[in-house]
């Protein structure tokens, strides 16, 4: 590839990646702040139900992504890639900013969760049209035989978006007092996105249309009805279904287990301090992100199939041992307690609720704060724990999350090139977007809510290893996808449509 063509492709990747990264940032801010949001937009008298409701609202944004894929995919195949994903960027950014402006449940009651849900649905629709456009745009600018490498830069944007969301949250927490962050500071990351969206819009505005699509439009070979040609044609529908059940379904659950479920698990099951979780997850993501490029490049050399299926198989075999080890790092029953302990510092708030605080320091440096709140209107007390882990445990968890991120990079790095190569130019945006967003939006997006429900149910039933039950969902889904992909996917790189 010549120096000039390299310069051209980097402009395309930079513009596409920045916009997509911002959209993922917008989407993940909600998930990263799920624990805080559950106390702001939902009734506070049942924290578990409020958290599950927040996860369900988060999942709702994923559920509608396939509809966004159909709507914006059709537009992208008719009017072009550039203008379609400019529209999705503005829709996503506006929705995110407005979530940060919604009054709390205490102020406007049930209208708060209703408005949040509506804006999450708009976010999901926008994201449904974004990824297919960006991946298609980059692939159609890429030289033959290098689609995996160049499109893998787009694959990094989801992880980078999550990483930046964590860093913005950490920075906001460090600048503000805990009280200010809890009162209004949690809204700042939502507001910040509008500035990022404005910059990205100006960059995308000056981009040219994809040369492959521009050529097809000039020759009059674009599709008049992309939806019918994508899903009404039995031959093309076969590839859509294979892409879903043989690749993106498993890729979706591996992605969300390795990044979102890991974060939720550490905060809500292991009870690690939220800022510590954001920090160690950010380090693991930073270390793992370059491997998207590595596996995207490798897929150009050896094919997409075995890299993606290898990541699924490793996840299937290793998830339970990994999460058991993670849990044991903060299992207080395995630690020797020091003599320093403070108990029952009584506080009584304005609602006459009694709050008892216990602080314990363990010999390895682990620090526990446990609050037991006796509500005036409830019989059972609410118990909350916050564990600050020592440096050794912190790096152990960073490594275990990093291993999960490696699984993610294996299944996600080659997926854009794999999907783009399956479909012809005139229906590519529509055809690839639907299986991708069903796999990620439905199967992947529902994972946090379903897995958290499994863990909650198993804990209530008294299972000793209840914390592992949430993993059955990604293990089963990935296993089904692995078998289908192993049998039906051809490992040869398909380039006939490019």
Provide the fold topology.
Blueprint: H1 3-32, H2 34-40, H3 47-63, H4 65-78, H5 81-99, H6 105-108, H7 111-139, H8 147-175, H9 178-183, H10 188-205, H11 211-219, H12 226-231, H13 234-269, H14 274-288, H15 290-302, H16 305-329, E1 337-342, E2 347-348, E3 354-362, E4 367-374, E5 382-388, H17 391-412, H18 415-420, H19 428-444, H20 447-460, H21 472-488
Antiparallel strand pairs: 1-3, 2-3, 3-4, 4-5
Helix pairs in contact: 1-5, 1-7, 1-8, 1-10, 2-3, 3-7, 3-19, 3-20, 4-5, 4-7, 4-19, 5-7, 5-10, 7-8, 7-19, 8-14, 8-15, 13-14, 13-16, 13-17, 13-19, 13-20, 13-21, 14-17, 15-17, 16-17, 16-21
Brief digest:
The chain is of the alpha+beta class and 498 residues long. The chain has 21 helices and five strands. The protein has helices at 3-32, 34-40, 47-63, 65-78, 81-99, 105-108, 111-139, 147-175, 178-183, 188-205, 211-219, 226-231, 234-269, 274-288, 290-302, 305-329, 391-412, 415-420, 428-444, 447-460, 472-488, and strands at residues 337-342, 347-348, 354-362, 367-374, 382-388.
